[in-house]
Amino acid sequence: MTWVYLGVAILFEIAFALGTNATKGFTRPVPSVLTLLAAAGGIYTLSLALRQLDVSVGYTIWTGIGGVGTVVLGAIFFKERITAARLISFACIISGAILLRLTAV
User: Fold this and answer.
1) What are the Cα distances from residue 48, in Å, to 51, 86, 91?
2) pLDDT at 105
3) Cα–Cα dist 14/83, whole Å
4) CA nearest 14: which of 56, 95, 74?
5) Which pTM value belongs to this model?
6) What residues form the membrane-spanning segments (predicted)?
7) How far apart are the first and last CA of the chain?
8) Which of 29, 69, 87, 102 is most buried, taking the most CB atoms under 10 A from its CB?
């Protein structure tokens, strides 16, 4: 269940990051509430994952994969550019997350 919790936490993290853009500085009530709920959900499910994972592993994977997901979905929903340099950076983040997963006890 540890990795399921972390996966859910990552989804919440992506929703939080994308939702923050939709709040327009937390001036729009519905997106603001949903964004805050996503933030709380992400922190809660991350805390469940950290019962078994080292914080260095769990937090790094949470932020790394969450960041990649945010960039990919930002490109889809907000038409943000994905350059070759960004693709290389994503590959490094994903490779690091995989290595962390393989070395986690």
Assistant:
1) 5, 31, 27
2) 62
3) 20
4) 74
5) 0.85
6) 33-50, 57-78, 84-104
7) 14
8) 69
